[in-house]
Write a structure and sequence with these properties.
about 25% helix, alpha+beta, 11 strands, eight-stranded antiparallel β-barrel, disordered C terminus, Hypothetical Protein Pfu-838710-001, two-stranded antiparallel sheet, disordered N terminus
């Protein structure tokens, strides 16, 4: 999830948990009941993961992502993840990019290419210092909670979710597992019938 940019050289940590959620409307109602603030209405996101030909970033547990959403292009680096009491923590650095085409040219010049694409529809809510994302994806619905570990645990309970069902995988890894179970799935995790950012229907 996006957040305020850190100062150069400062520590920037992503601390979050991802859980499956069969009923996003129930989670949304609970957030309203908790008087959470809606900070990002439901919107479409297109995400692309970049790596070199040998997959060095992926093998190291790192991620380089280009995200397009709400007219913005955001470049994100995530370091290897570690888990403490079921909550994922990793270095995360990101910045908005003014020229997406130039960014792609720079990545290509560095020997990087798009290796995986995934889409989702997301809305975000804030409660205290925590951010809750409700995600609709081609492989199901999920809730991501980012914040202080104690706040994360409190919100998991408040939203009626099961901490034991937490998923330790990124969407890319989760989709790779799904494709092993069903090889007929497309290579990328994309909606087969979707409405894009500009409102045009694509199939």
């Amino acid at each position: 999830m996006t957040g305020e940019a850190a100062r150069p050289g400062s520590e920037r940590q992503e601390i979050e948990i991802k859980l499956p959620c069969d009923d996003l409307e129930a989670a949304r109602a609970r957030l309203r009941g908790l008087r959470a603030e809606s900070v990002s209405p439901l919107h479409f996101e297109a995400n692309e993961l970049y790596d070199d030909g040998e997959g060095r970033l992926s093998r190291s547990g790192s991620t380089l992502r280009v995200r397009r959403a709400r007219g913005e292009t955001i470049l994100t680096y995530k370091g290897p993840a570690r888990f403490e009491d079921g909550i994922k923590q990793r270095e995360e650095r990101e910045t908005s990019v003014a020229d997406a085409e130039e960014l792609e040219a720079i990545l290509r010049a560095l020997g990087l290419a798009r290796r995986f694409r995934y889409e989702k529809r997301r809305e975000e809510w804030r409660l205290g210092s925590a951010v809750v994302a409700l995600d609709e994806t081609p492989i199901g619905h999920f809730v991501e909670i980012e914040g202080d570990p104690s706040e994360i645990r409190r919100l998991v309970v408040a939203l009626g979710l099961d901490f034991a069902s937490a998923i330790p995988y990124s969407y890319a890894r989760l989709y790779a597992i799904k494709r092993k179970e069903d090889p007929k799935l497309p290579e990328d995790m994309v909606f087969q019938d979707r409405e894009t950012e500009n409102g045009k229907r694509k199939t």
